[in-house]
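Our consortium's second objective concerns turning raw sequence data into structural hypotheses that experimental partners can test. To show how far this objective has progressed, the report includes one record in full. It was chosen at random from the queue rather than selected for favorable results. The single chain below, 308 residues long, was entered without modification.
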Amino acid sequence: MTDLQIRKMNFAFEDYDVPFLWNDANPAFSSMANAVSFLAIGFEKMIVKMILQTKPLITDPEVAAEADAFMRQEGQHSTAHRQHVRALIKQYPGLRETLDDVIGEFDRLTAETSLNYRLAYTADLEATFTPVFKLMLDNEAALFRPGDDRVASLFIWHFVEEVEHRSSALVVFDSVVGSDIYRMRVAPSVFRHVLKVIRLACEGFNEHVPLADRRIDALSMFASYRRKQRLRTWLPLLHAEDHGPLPRAFDDLPLGEQLVALAGVVRSQLPKHNPAHEKLPALADVWFRRYEDGYDVTRWYTADAVAS
């Protein structure tokens, strides 16, 4: 049977004005993480529908239990990210259109692609999360600690639970489809779609959130976009629209750690990949222990101060 836990969180985003620039020290990471919130809502909605379609095809009771727990965890993530995005829309109403566009992209996947494709999509994307989120969580002092405590706590919770269920999507895929060749074959289209959705979110940020509030061009995370913007700066006749500076979210992180994460992403797409063997962020174990001890993980950095 699965050992995944279903943890219901309330970050009380309705109680205050949630800042778009929630980590003032790293505007690019703030924007990237906000885009993750938008993507998570659409992606996790797709996952829930996908698992409901898949359950009748699963014959192994342990796989069925894993699929159910995976779906329920993802449902909790979607609920929490909806609360976060709702708070941003309250301040920037135009982001409602952005959210609808992002959800629409995943609704189209559900309507227009096969169940096998969506199982592969989920397995491919989820397999990348452990190395990527390890990079982030290993550098929490720079990426999360300086930021708004509730927003930081939302992402820390989500990322450690992604590490917890790191094998779930592949377990379900292998049970129903079981073809590494198919998973690898569709991977390029999967990641094109993921980048398309993130780009939609970032374009919405540029359009609906004033530069004074975001402080950077939200599309700065895309290398090809940065190159085009710099080319247009050198060639004024191209009339580039200036949306702000173009820093990267990980500019200050150790290059060696970034390369390790990149190697992990590549490895995650290879045949016979087993996420259970991945190196895990130390922060995940700390988080799980604190949660079991009753620590208020929705205020990761300030709960002790509030309690005292």
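The partners drew two points from this record. The chain has a mean pLDDT of 94. Residues 15-307 form one domain. Both points have been shared with the crystallography group to help prioritize constructs.
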